[in-house]
Design a protein that fits this description.
The chain has a 6-stranded mixed beta sheet with strand order 4-5-7-9-11-10, with helices on one face. A 5-stranded mixed beta sheet has the order 3-2-1-12-13, with no helix packed on it. Helix 13 runs antiparallel to helix 14 and helix 15 runs antiparallel to helix 16. The protein has 16 helices and 25 strands. The chain has 658 residues and is α+β, with helices and mostly antiparallel strands.
Length: 658
């Protein structure tokens, strides 16, 4: 064993150390680019691309179309309440008041949950969804979300109720292209991107999306079909930051789009209500808050080729006000929208939707009263203006609407007739701009490598080495830190602890975690890097996050616990019973509480897998195996010969020298 350990430490571990150093270096250089917030600069206006020339906007209701989006409805048999009843009210008001050209539903149409932690498609939920949603609009474009693919082995499966009850069930089982032809000769393309996993595992490992090479090629064709439209809108369930796809990625697919509409993240537990950004391709990405808990929906419009939108709270919705020209300059799309359109316009144009008569629509520009807009036709209100007065700099327009029932809505937004630079919210950029599947993969393997590298370095610490002098060779740091570092060094001098900790860390990255019935009747194997089920390797979902959490809640605490065991045993051996004091008792209590916390975390994780995948998931080297390993190493830490810990006794005294 000693000979094997020597060879391992001096050859393989040195190679691992070099590789891991390279991974650390690459990751630190690469990560900033993952969070880079790209904005078009004024000089990029030469990249302008427009498929059609519109006449100068005036007062008439022409070249103006509006649409509605709703997402994450989660029709549930267990949580009906106001979620379903208000959805009926919403559809009624959309159909009777807003009257959009079409309605888009971006996934998670049903909840597909059991009464406990499990997941299962429920036909009753789909029947309810189908009955309600078809009352929203004559044209309804819906698409699957991850909840709609829970426990669905394949598209043609009888368990895939989307192909039976969705609005697009007859024609479009996955991604599709729909063209809307307005009465004014405009054509707008809407491309639905279905990135749900196929096969679709049960919760929890069904959170991110995947575009296969076959689906990627199909989407490329759909994009080519839409190239002649006045504007293109892509929509799907997942934000682009959570989709695995072939190179060059989904954002390259959507490079000619005006906007990508999505859902899925549910306002991130209420912390990010406005999740918008501009992708490097010049496309707006607009995540919409969910209907499930927050009752959000979106009203959008194209007015002479300019795209505008407003997100609406259902409980406080009337009147809805959308200023279409001049549009909010923060959402100016340089590739598709020309400032000339605004410069040549003769009227300010505002859409107002209300279930009551409108009393007044007052317009202010830069704090100056412009007058009261007049009703033109339908929801359109207009007011003459002279755009030449606002050609320079950034300006603000405010519209105040009063209706017959006494309700008031005030909307204010910036506008400009020349290029401006804007930034979106830090959290929104953090969520929507990166490539999280790549970050998760890099972060996980760097974390694994970091722990292995730490084990190797502590094992190789020598009193004459630089690392030893850096960590242990000075008296400026608190004594308890020095003591703890000596304890960590001590446990890695023991082959048993060293190889078990390194081996279990590496196993987390390469070995099978557990067996599970990921789909009804289909036993799958879960790895850090993916899941094998139904004859298919499904890419890693939350696996990397779960792996990093496991390292943080098991591997690192276990190292700490064993080092405390080392310190405790050496201190007890160096003192007689009469000299033992409260420090030893405190150390004993702390390390045993730490062990209980480790075991509790592991058992809880195994319990959640059991609830999600039934009893077979207890065949679990990942969690149950870790429990057994922790108990075994605890036993050996109390019985192994002290001399195995090496020459660390002098560093384990918690008392300061006097």
């Amino acid at each position: 064993m000693n000979s094997f350990g020597f060879l391992f430490s001096n050859h393989i571990c040195k190679l691992i150390a070099v590789i891991l150093f390279g991974l650390f270096l690459v990751s630190f250089l690469f990560f900033p680019f993952l969070f880079f917030n790209y904005r078009f600069s004024p000089e990029r206006e030469s990249d302008f691309h427009e498929n059609a020339t519109f006449p100068s906007p005036a007062s008439k209701l022409v070249h103006l179309s509006w649409f509605v989006q709703v997402t994450d409805i989660h029709v549930s048999r267990f949580h009906r309440g106001s979620r379903v009843s208000q959805l009926r009210e919403f559809c009624s008001s959309v159909d009777q008041v807003i009257q959009p050209a079409l309605v888009i539903v971006t996934g998670d149409l049903t909840d597909a949950k059991t009464a406990t932690y499990g997941s299962q498609q429920n036909e009753d939920e789909w029947i309810t969804y189908s009955k309600i949603i078809k009352t929203c609009s004559d044209v309804l474009l819906d698409i699957r979300g991850n909840h709609d693919s829970f426990n669905v082995p394949e598209i043609e499966s009888e368990n895939n109720f989307f192909k039976k009850y969705s609005a697009q069930r007859t024609y479009r089982p996955r991604s599709y292209h729909y063209q809307y032809h307005s009465p004014y000769g405009d054509t707008y393309s809407f491309i639905a991107m279905d990135a749900t996993l196929v096969p679709g595992p049960r919760v929890p490992f069904n959170f991110i999306g995947q575009i296969t090479e076959e689906e990627y090629a199909n989407l490329e064709k759909l994009g080519e079909e839409a190239s002649s439209s006045n504007a293109v809108i892509w929509f799907g369930h997942y934000p682009s930051s959570l989709i695995v796809s072939p190179s060059p990625g989904v954002r390259a697919l959507m490079r000619y789009a005006s906007a990508y509409l999505c859902g899925h993240l549910h306002t991130v537990y209420g912390y990010v209500h406005k999740m918008y950004t501009m992708q490097p391709t010049g496309m707006l990405e607009l995540e919409l808050g969910d209907w499930k808990d927050h009752r959000r929906y979106r009203v959008m419009a194209f007015d002479h080729g300019h795209f505008s939108f407003t997100d609406v709270q259902f409980g406080d919705r009337w009147p809805i006000v959308l200023i279409t020209l001049p549009k909010n300059s923060q959402f100016h799309i340089p590739m598709h929208e020309s400032y000339d359109t605004i410069e040549k316009s003769s009227h300010i144009r505002v859409l107002v939707f209300d279930d009551q008569a409108i009393e007044s629509v007052k317009v202010f520009v830069d704090g100056v009263v412009m007058g009261e807009a007049s009703h033109e036709e339908g929801p359109l209100y207009v007011l003459p203006w002279n755009p030449n007065l606002y050609k320079v700099g950034l300006h603000h327009i405010k519209v105040v609407v009063n209706d017959a029932s006494g309700r008031t809505r005030t909307v204010e937004q910036p506008f400009s007739l020349s290029p401006q630079k804007y930034s979106f919210g830090l959290l929104a950029n953090f969520i929507l701009l990166p490539d999280y599947p790549t970050i998760g993969r890099i972060g996980f393997f760097v974390a694994v490598g970091g722990i292995v590298l730490m084990c190797f370095l502590f094992r190789r610490l020598t009193p004459n080495g630089f690392t030893y002098r850096l960590l242990l060779g000075h008296d400026t740091q608190p004594r308890w830190i020095t003591c703890l570092l000596h304890g960590i060094r001590g446990i890695f001098q023991v082959d048993l602890f060293y190889f078990w900790i390194v081996g279990s860390t590496v196993y987390t990255a390469v070995g099978p975690w557990f067996l599970a019935e990921l789909i009804d009747g289909e036993i799958g194997i879960v790895f850090a890097w993916g899941m094998f089920v139904h004859g298919t390797m499904v890419p890693a979902d939350l696996n990397y996050l779960d792996g990093v959490t496991h390292l943080a809640k098991f591997q690192l605490p276990l190292i700490l616990y064993l080092s405390l065991c080392c310190i405790y045993r050496i201190r007890r051996s160096n003192q007689s019973e009469s000299k033992r004091n409260w420090k030893e008792l405190l150390l004993l209590v702390f390390k045993e509480i730490l062990l209980l916390a480790i075991l509790r975390s592991l058992c809880y994780s195994a319990y959640t897998y059991y609830h999600a995948y039934d009893i077979i998931s207890l065949v679990n080297p990942f969690k149950i195996g870790s429990v057994l390993l922790a108990l075994y190493l605890r036993h050996r830490a109390g019985t192994i010969a002290l001399e195995k810990f090496g020459p660390v006794q002098a560093g384990t005294d918690l008392r300061r020298d006097t």
